[in-house]
Amino acid sequence: MQTQNRTKSSMAAENAADDTSYTQEAHDRLDQAASKAHATVDRVHRRATNLSDQFASQGGRTYQQACAWVTEHPMQAIGGALAIGYLFGRLRS
Hints:
Layout: H1 2-72, H2 74-92
């Protein structure tokens, strides 16, 4: 009976050790996945910020070019605006 109790006791201790090692392994893998995800999010954020800056810069240049063209060709700009307004008006009715 005493041997049987020791066996049950040692089996319980082994099961607890196995559970602890599985829990630790799962925790380690979760930490690794979180670290990789965080690195990916940081990389995407940097790239998105860079693209945003590029688009803002390009948009500013395009706006300046459009303003310069309108200043140089005011009658063509007015004619183009009237034509576009007319076409949109026809499409809506």
